[in-house]
Every structure is written in C-alpha cells, then in structure tokens.
Amino acid sequence: MSEELIRARGEKAKQYFLEGYNCTQAVVLAFADRCDIDRDTLLKLASSFGGGMGRLREVCGTVSGMFIILGLISGYATPEKGAKKAAHYADVQELARRFEAENGSIVCRELLGLSVKRQDPTPDPRTPQYYQKRPCPDLVAQAAEILEAFLAEQ
After folding, report:
1. What is the pLDDT of residues 41-75, one digit of tens each?
2. How far is Cα 145 from Cα 8, in angstroms, rounded to an integer?
3. Over 90: is that where the pLDDT of 132 sits?
4. I want to staple 114 with a disulfide (CB 3.0 to 4.6 A). Which of 5, 26, 55, 109 is the partner?
5. Per-residue DSSP letter, 107
6. How far apart are CA 152 and CA 37, in angstroms?
7. pLDDT of 1
C-alpha cells in the first residue's frame, strides 16, 4: 500500500473530526467502506467513546476507533477461548503499541496534558481556540494511518 493511500485515510478521518464528529466516530467513519455495517449504526456504536470514553479521559477515542474497526474487520463472533481470541488481542496490542510509540500514551488525559480524570460531560465548543490547544485532529489522522498501514500488512 502506498504512503499516499495511508495519508488519504488519515486526512479523511481528520476531516470528519473537523466536521464535528467525535474522535472515535471520525476514525470509524474513515473506514466505513471497509465494514459491513450501515453508517448510522457505525456512528452510534462509536458515539460513547469520544473524549476518552464519554469525557472520562481514559483510552483515547482514536485508539478505541482503531479497535472497533479491527473488530468489525477481523474480530470473532463466537465464545472464543483459544488461538483466534489470542491472535485478535495480539493485533489490538500491536495497534496500541504503535500509537503509544508515536505519542507516549494511549490515555486521553495524558495526551491532552490534563490532570483531571473526569470532566463535565458537556463537550467543549469547537472553536478555533479549541483546535489550537488540542492535538485531537492530528491524533485522529494518525490513528487512521496506523490502522490503514496495519491492515495493509495483513
């Protein structure tokens, strides 16, 4: 897969974020063409994970988005106990490792430099100042690029 296609996937995700979708939704929407699920269901599935899971500032929503898409593309749908489950979890851990290698963490509050563990559930307005102080648009693009490259390797 070419670097151009990887970057295009990242730019698509970033654009969705800039349109107002949360970080998880932006990543999953960028991969909607790879999933056998309708757009509204995909968006609803991802809606709870923005802001590090509903602004709890836990696992970054971009990382959750990668995991959701990975599950839809190559996850399992039976009560697995063995090799298939272990292989899937190994892929999840590899995606997390790649993201963390680039950013130092997969935790939202750490990526944003926040000391609070939870925030008011009301999202911050998407103003120019919001985008200037947050790495989120770039993290969204990066997560989509990491996932696109990973899927191309498979």
Report:
1. 999 999 999 999 999 999 999 999 999 999 999 99
2. 8
3. no
4. 109
5. B
6. 20
7. 63
User: Which whole-number Å values give the CA distances from 87 to 77, 81, 92, 113, 122, in the listed order?
Assistant: 14, 11, 9, 33, 38
Count of all residues that appear for the chain in the document: 154
Q: What is the mean pLDDT of the chain?
A: 95
**CB atoms < 10 A from the CB of 97, how many?**
12
Q: Which amino acid is at 52?
A: G
**Which tokens sit at 125?**
């307005």
Show contacts of 112-120: CB within 8 Å, 24+ apart.
112/57, 114/57, 116/57, 117/56, 117/57, 118/55, 118/56, 118/57, 119/51, 119/55, 119/56, 119/57, 120/55
